[in-house]
């Protein structure tokens, strides 16, 4: 993918974040007006020195159980299987048209995140990005966090309640240690309402069988389209690097996601992977497990996602 062009202040230091055009067509697409003030809010939310943040993250990692870093089986314990012959010829709605529904301040805008443990906790990229966006758009934020143990959503987390416009509602179906096959197996509860925008954030847990990630994405999108055909916009993250023993396998996953995006050009690519590698020191963006983001990494992921929403 072509590097993102431009620079902006993010997090504790000034990280290099190259802004990009559409990685498949090279075109600059219509932009949602998200001001630089939103970028500053992200930095303020995690505004402590990076050394302190990294130390705190390391302490948290040492004292707390972390999610499974790699799936033990292709199904990740979900009990389901992905059909390799899933229909990949579906006709998807325009990402820009779906995203621009956000401009209607009198209408609730619904985002469905389908992902893993990089975005399932408060302070990680989903929470950081959509808190900042809700404030920028003067919308209340309603976040629904997914619970892996109960396979259900917990009570909603509300913020910015005094904002005058219709809510920004985020169903955060991020599941620790899981792949998109788990998301498909839990489809009816994980995706309870029709979304305007679906963000796919899987891949880090596909390192045992990298080639399956594209099939899983196809099957999941096909099921969404079966319920709500040609109405939803899609984005997919190329996830942050792994610097552990699965680094090479994860690079293979990234190649497969890149190939899947090339085959489904209506899906907006969010190149978090390159944003991390282009930073001055990628090790400050990952916890000691060399897999999960630090607060600085989560902020970088959040800003990269918000940049993709603008393009």
Automatic annotation (TrEMBL):
GO molecular function: hydrolase activity
One Pfam family matching this protein: Lipase_GDSL_2
Keywords for this protein: Hydrolase, Membrane, Transmembrane, Transmembrane helix
Highest taxon above the source species: Bacteria
Keyword match Flavoprotein: no
Domain SGNH hydrolase-type esterase: 169-299
Annotated transmembrane regions: 42-63
Protein's UniProt keywords contain Protein biosynthesis: no
Descriptive protein name: SGNH/GDSL hydrolase family protein
Species name: Mycetocola zhadangensis
Lineage: Bacteria, Bacillati, Actinomycetota, Actinomycetes, Micrococcales
């Amino acid at each position: 993918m072509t590097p993102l062009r431009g620079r902006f202040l993010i997090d504790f230091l000034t990280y290099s974040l190259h802004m990009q055009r559409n990685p498949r067509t090279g075109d600059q697409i219509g932009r949602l007006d998200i001001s630089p003030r939103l970028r500053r809010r992200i930095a303020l939310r995690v505004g402590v020195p990076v050394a302190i943040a990294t130390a705190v993250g390391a302490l948290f990692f040492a004292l707390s159980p972390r999610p499974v870093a790699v799936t033990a089986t292709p199904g990740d314990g979900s009990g389901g299987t992905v059909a390799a012959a899933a229909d990949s010829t579906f006709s998807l709605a325009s990402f820009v048209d779906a995203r621009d529904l956000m401009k209607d301040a009198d209408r609730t805008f619904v985002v469905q995140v389908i992902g893993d443990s990089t975005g399932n906790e408060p302070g990680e990229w989903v929470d950081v990005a959509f808190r900042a966006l809700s404030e920028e758009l003067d919308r209340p934020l309603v976040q629904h966090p997914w619970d892996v143990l109960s396979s259900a959503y917990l009570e909603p987390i509300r913020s910015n309640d005094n904002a005058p416009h219709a809510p920004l509602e985020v169903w955060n179906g991020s599941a620790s240690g899981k792949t998109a096959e788990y998301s498909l197996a839990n489809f009816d509860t994980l995706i309870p309402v029709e979304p305007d925008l679906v963000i796919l954030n899987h891949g880090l847990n596909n390192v045992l069988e990298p080639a399956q990630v594209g099939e899983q994405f196809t099957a999941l999108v096909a099921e969404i389209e079966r319920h709500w055909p040609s109405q939803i916009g899609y984005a997919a993250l190329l996830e942050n690097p792994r610097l552990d023993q699965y680094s090479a396998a994860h690079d293979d996953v990234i190649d497969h996601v890149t190939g899947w995006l090339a085959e489904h050009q209506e899906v907006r690519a969010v190149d978090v992977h390159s944003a991390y590698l282009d930073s001055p020191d990628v090790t400050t963006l990952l916890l000691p497990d060399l897999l999960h983001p630090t607060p600085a990494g989560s902020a970088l992921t959040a800003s990269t996602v918000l940049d993709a929403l603008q393009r």
